[in-house]
Amino acid sequence: MPTLSIYGDVHIPDNLIHALGLKPGAKLAFERQGDAIIMRPVKTNKVSQVDAGPKILAYTGSTVTLEEMDDAIAKGAAQSL
User: Fold this and answer.
1) What are residue 12's phi and psi, to 5 degrees?
2) How many Å apart are CA 48 and CA 57, to the nearest integer?
3) Exposure string over 22-55, b if 16+ CB within 10 A, otherwise e
4) Domain for residue 72, yes or no?
5) The total number of structural domains that make up the chain
6) Is residue 24 part of a domain?
7) CA–CA separation, 40 vs 33, rounded Å?
8) Does residue 59 belong to any structural domain of this protein?
9) 48: Cα separation from own chain's centroid
């Protein structure tokens, strides 16, 4: 059974580390519920560069320029009037 050190550290059992997919440096949130402490991993959204967008979304189609996007938006706006 894990115990609290004089520095406030607690060893998380390996089976829980693996079950939650925790890695060294993972951010954890603690919450008090009555006399229990709830620990949850904090999921962070990694900031990506615009060029990585299609890779993140697994998009494999062709790409368009900003000018082509602007033209398509203008055409759609004109058609909606």
Assistant:
1) -80, 130
2) 12
3) eeeeeeeeeeeeeeeeeeeeeeeeeeeeeeeeee
4) yes
5) 1
6) no
7) 13
8) yes
9) 11
Is 73 inside any structural domain?
A: yes
> Do residues 51 and 39 make contact, with C-beta atoms less than 8 angstroms apart?
no
pLDDT of residue 74: 92
What are 67's two structure tokens? 């000018």
User: In residues, how long is the chain?
Assistant: 81
Residue 8 and residue 16: Cα distance in Å, rounded? Answer: 19
Scan for tokens 């900003």, then name that residue.
66
Rounded-to-integer distance, Cα 50 and Cα 59, Å? 13
Adjacent-strand bridge partners of 30: 39
Residue indicated by tokens 């009555």? 34
pLDDT band, very low/low/confident/very high, at 79 (cuts 50, 70, 90): confident
Q: Nearest-CA neighbor of 21 among 42, 47, 48?
A: 42
Q: What is the mean pLDDT of the chain?
A: 85
